């Protein structure tokens, strides 16, 4: 505010609410909502029992269980408790629990070689959508690129790769991005140019080393002839 006034303008604080930058990490006190599939419930008493034990857990601020869908939604502080502790609590209460959605997302991208037709892209998209933990899928048949949003607490990258490569009778091959390269064609051209410069530098280095040796051999031969 002082900087604005020094510039010759009037300033007044209207709100001190901090607006996070786009893409910035969540604040330390942010809570997440996890969804769990719960088996073994038979009546409303089961629902009440599960909700009661969950709400007593440290870090859990809300717990809601639906008997008809066999789903439970838990809002919790990840600094105080994790998903596995919630699952263990439900199991200890006499029910079966499985994490369905941790409330967190990771974006992944990769290339699927052998994805040549629209039918191939539909097959790849279908197998990814069937995977538990995969939320959003975008497939581009022209570039063979796949972008997906996954819940890394539910499904791992290895499972995604195996699922894609198992479809299509082995025709599909997943290529993960190398951290030292890029999909950009401009970047590829730069790398190729640098590689050519490197080769030429090697050639000139070898020439500068071998030239004195050649002249030395010629001098020795001349002396012997004399």
Q: Unreliable segments (pLDDT under 50, ≥5 consecutive)? A: 11-26, 180-188
CA distance, first residue to last residue = 91 Å
Rg is 31 Å
Average pLDDT works out at: 74
- Please tell me what the overall shape is: elongated
- SSE pattern: HEHEEHEEHEEHEH
**Biggest β-sheet: strands ordered side by side in the sheet:** 2-3-1-4
Percentage of residues in strands: 15-25%
What key attributes describe this structure?
Alpha-Beta Plaits, 4-stranded antiparallel β-sheet, 8 strands, alpha+beta, 6 helices, 40% helix, 226 residues
Written account of the structure:
The N and C termini lie far apart (91 Å). Among the domains are: 32-101, Alpha-Beta Plaits (2-Layer Sandwich); 106-175, Alpha-Beta Plaits (2-Layer Sandwich). A hairpin with a 4-residue loop joins β6 and β7 (145-150). It is built from six helices and eight strands; from the N terminus they run αβαββαββαββαβα. It is an alpha+beta fold and 226 residues long. Mean pLDDT is 74; it is low at 11-26 and 180-188. It is elongated and about 75 Å long.
Ordered list of secondary-structure elements with their pairings:
Layout: H1 2-6, E1 32-39, H2 44-55, E2 60-66, E3 71-76, H3 83-92, E4 96-101, E5 106-113, H4 118-129, E6 134-140, E7 145-150, H5 157-166, E8 173-175, H6 185-225
Antiparallel strand pairs: 1-3, 1-4, 2-3, 5-7, 5-8, 6-7
Short summary of the structure?
With 226 residues, the chain is α+β, with helices and mostly antiparallel strands.
